[in-house]
Amino acid sequence: MEMLAEWDNFSLYLEDLRSRAYRLAIGFVAVFAIGFFAAGMIINQMIRFFKLANVTIAATSPFQYFDLAMDIGFFCAVIILAPFAIYEVYSFLKSALTSREQKLFLKLLPVGLLLFVSGFAYGFFTLYISLSSLAKINTDLGITNMWDIGKFVAQVSLTGALLGILFQLPLVATFLIRVGVLSVAFLREKRRHAIVIIFIFVSLLPPTDVLSLIILTLPLLIMYEVILIINRAYKSPEESIKAYV
């Protein structure tokens, strides 16, 4: 009887998981379709935003726009559906979390969304400065700026998305500190290692010039220090008990 009851509970969990995955799949297809058919408008707005003088954005294949529209549709679906996917995971695991962890998660979720948007916008701002400077340098050297539309959109989207993810660093670190996985003392001790890792990771992002590297790295270093400042007064329940004893 116990095995039968456990199987019934397991079946309920599977059915709940299936329904959540089905909703996400429907949403993914819908957003993908919207992004696919709006690709032309998105590309046009992106080119107009950067206002690149003396730059020709060219397609190198008659089928490149179709491939690009597929990529834009996929990118839009992933970015827009990510917060909903995270919430669905939270809802599925909610019963396994303590009330403190549930409240913490619900507080951090909208903050995470705001940080992602801020990181994405900051990536666009950095690229705006960098691409304008690089285009002007090429023009001054007598070099014609003819940029591949696929690589241009991919680099802009990738930089914005990765900056948005990196801007989640304070959120993730704070959550891990509050649930007892990390400690402020550990982060303070490993500060130099973290700085090196941040520089290495950011150096892999486009653009690769020194100015962009500094601009992209600076807010991440500030965020790391903010993590230490915000959480320096926090003590885990175990640390509080030890301090009391």
Account of the 3D structure:
It contains ten helices and two strands, in the order ααβααβαααααα. With 245 residues, it is mainly α. It has one domain. Strands 1-2 form a two-stranded parallel sheet. Helix 1 runs antiparallel to helix 3, helix 3 runs parallel beside helix 5 and helix 4 packs antiparallel against helix 5. The C terminus is likely disordered.
Write the layout of secondary structure elements.
Blueprint: H1 2-37, H2 39-50, E1 55-58, H3 64-93, H4 99-140, E2 145-148, H5 149-166, H6 169-178, H7 184-189, H8 191-203, H9 210-231, H10 237-244
Parallel strand pairs: 1-2
Summarize this structure as a short list of keywords or feature phrases.
two-stranded parallel ribbon; mainly alpha; 245 residues; 10 helices; flat
SS summary, helix count: 10
Radius of gyration: 23 Å
E-strand count: 2
| Uncertain residue segments | 240-245
Task: Give the neighbour order of strands across the main sheet.
Answer: 1-2
State the domain count: 1
Mean model confidence by pLDDT: 82
The major sheet is characterized as: 2 strands, parallel
Q: What fraction strand?
A: under 5%
Order of helices and strands: HHEHHEHHHHHH
Q: How far from one another are the termini? A: 47 Å
| Anisotropy-based shape | flat
